[in-house]
Amino acid sequence: MKIAITSTGNTLDSLIDSRFGRCSYFVIYDSETKSTEFIPNPNKESIEGAGPASAQLVATKGVTKVVSGEFGAKVKSLFDTLQIELVILNKADKSIKEIIELLER
Amino acid sequence: MKNITIAIASGKGGTGKTLISVNMFYALNQLYDSVTLVDCDAEEPNDLLFFSQTQLKQVSQTEVNLSIPVINDKLCTFCGLCQEYCTYNAIFILKDLKRISVLEDLCHGCGACTFACKYGAIKEREVSLGEVTTYKVFENSYLVEARGRVGVYSPVNVIKAATTIGQRGGIVLLDSPPGTSCPFIQTVAKADYVILVTEPTPFGLSDLKQSAETLKTMGKPFGVIVNRAGLGDDEVYSYLKNENVPLLMEIPFEREIASIYSRGEIVAKTRPGWVDDFGEMFGLIYKDYGDSGNKR
Fold first, then answer.
1. Domain boundary assignment for chain A
2. Contact, B167 vs B3, CB < 8 A?
3. Does B106 touch chain A (CB under 8 A)?
4. B116-125 pLDDT, tens digit each
5. What is each CA distance from B229 to B10, B60, B94, B241, in whole angstroms?
6. Could you say which of 3.40.50.720, 3.40.50.1010, 3.30.420.130, 3.40.50.2300 is the CATH number of the domain covering A2-103?
7. So what's the pLDDT on residue B293?
8. A60/B92 CB distance under 8 A
9. Model confidence, pTM
10. Is A50 close to B89, i.e. CB distance below 8 A?
11. Residue B252 contacts by C-beta under 8 Å, 6 or more apart in sequence?
12. Burial of residue A80 (number of CB atoms within 10 Å: 0-12, 13-18, 19+)
């Protein structure tokens, strides 16, 4: 299963990015191979529609779950139709490594 | 005939834009020929409330539409070119899953996607954004109202249409929406001069600063009316002095003014001094920014 996590940086020690559409990086974590891929978010500076463009990016990667601090109204309905689960994590001090550990439990 | 377009704006909501707009409109009508008031606050237009229904005569109404793409997924090859052409991220496509959809709220109706499609899979349909209505109020004097349809994402296109229709020559007053975002920018962009209405409170000052900075960036000349003078503190006045911004007028914090306004009446009707004050203020603005000074 692939999971996308929004990240403020490109290492496992980076903290979660509280924004979805305009986060700095997306981490794609594969729970079968235990591999992680860091993708710089090309939509960070979008004038409009950063959320849907980012939803498209993570959906293209084949994820079935997305972890972030918050999601906007437009992406919620998109993810619903794609049957991708959203996890809201209100803990800004959690690192990517810690979040992966939580997901593995 | 005097030609000038003046926007009445503010950063903060509820500072008195509409009070100034309708009273200035009334006052200038007593003094000059051909005055138009454009209510650009398309999300909640209310200038109309200050004129009796018998006084108003509707002269025209224009529907404001947007062309939204409709994608036929039987003809679509999911090539993704339409999405590449879209600057506003309004097309959502998942090539592998053969899924494509239009996010109508993000669409600006530019037509680039229709142009991009080589397979004839995109047709357009008209969506109503709102309407612009013109009323005759006095002889040779009009009120143009921008009214957005409830639920529409952005009022900008309706405002744009209203300022175009409202540009009848003569004196044009634009009652701007609050804030400093796109609806405000769209309104003040058409003005020769901007009157910022504020109140002498920390909230008024904070938002005044934002509007002033925006107007400076746009190169728009402006001055300030302090409403509810006597309330709050002196910080707004210090700011105006330090920044060299002209203080155009002060309206005292008075229960009676609020009372007249809340009944939907025009204060200048019962206080002739207001007609003179607005006339004098207008004269000074016109001298520097009217007709020949028009560098729109």
1. 2-103
2. no
3. yes
4. 999 999 999 9
5. 16, 39, 58, 16
6. 3.30.420.130
7. 52
8. no
9. 0.81
10. yes
11. B228, B229, B230
12. exposed
Query: Which tokens is B272 given?
Result: 């002739």
Q: For B229-266, how does the pLDDT look when each residue is reduced to its tens digit (9 = 90+)? A: 999 999 999 999 999 999 999 999 999 999 999 999 99
Q: Which chain A residue's Cα is nearest to B96? A: A60
DSSP B184-252: HHHHHTT-SEEEEEE-SSHHHHHHHHHHHHHHHHHT--EEEEEEEETBS-SHHHHHHHHHT--EEEEEE
Give the C-alpha separation, B235 to B14, whole Å.
19
Q: What per-residue confidence (pLDDT) applies to B296?
A: 46
Mean of all residue pLDDT scores within chain A: 94
- Residues from chain B that touch A46, judged by Cβ atoms under 8 A, are 89
| B94 in contact with A, Cβ within 8 Å | yes
The tokens for B241 are 């002095």
pLDDT by residue (tens digit) across B74-94?
A: 999 999 999 999 999 999 999
Strand partners, B134: B60, B144
B103 contact A CB<8A = yes
d(Cα A53, Cα B217) in Å, to the nearest integer?
30
Q: Does ipTM exceed 0.95? A: no
